[in-house]
What we know:
- The chain has two domains: 3-110 and 237-320 and 363-387, FAD/NAD(P)-binding domain; 113-233, 3-Layer(bba) Sandwich (FAD/NAD(P)-binding domain), CATH 3.50.50.
- The chain has helices spanning 12-24, 47-51, 61-64, 119-122, 129-141, 155-167, 187-200, 291-310, 352-370; strands at 3-8, 30-36, 70-81, 86-91, 94-99, 102-105, 109-111, 123-125, 147-151, 172-176, 203-205, 210-214, 217-220, 225-227, 230-233, 237-239, 256-257, 270-272, 277-278, 323-328, 332-338, 344-350, 396-397.
- Helix content is 26%, strand content 27%.
- By secondary structure, the protein is α/β, with parallel strands linked by helices.
- Keywords: FAD, Flavoprotein, Oxidoreductase.
- GO terms for molecular function: NAD(P)H dehydrogenase (quinone) activity.
- InterPro entries: FAD/NAD-bd_sf, FAD/NAD-binding_dom, NADH-Q_oxidoreductase.
- Its cofactor is FAD.
Amino acid sequence: MEHRIIVLGAGYTGAFAAGRLAKRLRPEDVSITLVNAEPDFVERVRMHQVAAGQDLKPRPFAEMFAGTGVELKLAKVTAVDADAKTVALTGAGGAETLAYDTLVYALGSGWTDHGVPGAAEHAYEIASRPGALKLRERLARLDAGQTVTVVGGGLTGVEAATEFAEARPDLKVALVARGGLGDWVSPKAQAHLRKVFAKLGIRVHEHADVAEVRPDAVVTADGTAIDSAATVWTTGFAVHPIAAATTMETTGRGQIVVDRDMASVSHPDVFAVGDAGYAMGDSGSPLRMSCASGIPMAQNAAEAIVARLTGTRPGRAPLGYFNQCISLGRKEGLIQYVHGDDRARSGSLRGPLAARYKELICKGAAWGVANPTYGMPVRRRRIAKAARPEGSAVRALA
């Protein structure tokens, strides 16, 4: 009888986990179902490039997982019952409920307006492909001299502002940051950021909280109105709300609390990876929402599942950081070396070489997802008899 594994979400972490499980387990022992609403892989770390008018290489899941044994189901997840061990879906064929023995929850995160008046109505987001494409259309309609205002001084905001300024030098680009520009990187790296921003003509409003977004302006807490023909919101992420509606233990922001193997501390048959999971790094600090966190989380979850099913010892990837890779348009970049807990070290790589390094990292991440069973030869293992659920041949519930 097959052990039923369902993976919810096919972003970097979900697709990676599904591929690794398919590589490590024998198809006659397990069924692996990958559920995703879209038919192809989205390189989320490149959405600012899409918004700026660039086209990305299509990566259809049907091609990526052909011959791997992974079943792709195009559907939207509507609910998870962690006690009954079922997931509810809605797809082209209507509503459906699937039962699982092991669940990998990788629904990720989206944008959040943090309750700022007018943000939901007037701002654009680039946390999703539909959002990036919508902004792309808006930017294409802007006339020379109009202003694009990016709200948020983190990695996404910095990358978006520089990408837009480089791609559309005829526009005015502004960045509104709650803190100082790049105040999380080393002094030399921060100086490089300022140099690039000045070269691209980006106006920076530092130490400014946004109190309101209007159709034609961003208003800060002190009442300053900043002209904005298009406002781009990059102030952080909100996780998918489904987990918080379950009986699983979650944080206040809805992340599933997991152990070192990425298993839910309240429901050990559920593994949460990527932005959906609240995991502690090796340094003792929580992992931040990022691809840099998600891939090792997915690797650890897959290895833990394999170990549990086959009665072997799990391989564990380190949970920490080495650097932060920041693109500053297509020609400039910044690689900030960090401690394991993500605090900046004194060293950094700056300039065109850093841009090429960042591009290599992005290509490598996408290639790894697009080639799920390629790489080091790994023997597919048989699952132990104890892991074979009674009656598991019945995969769907009425």
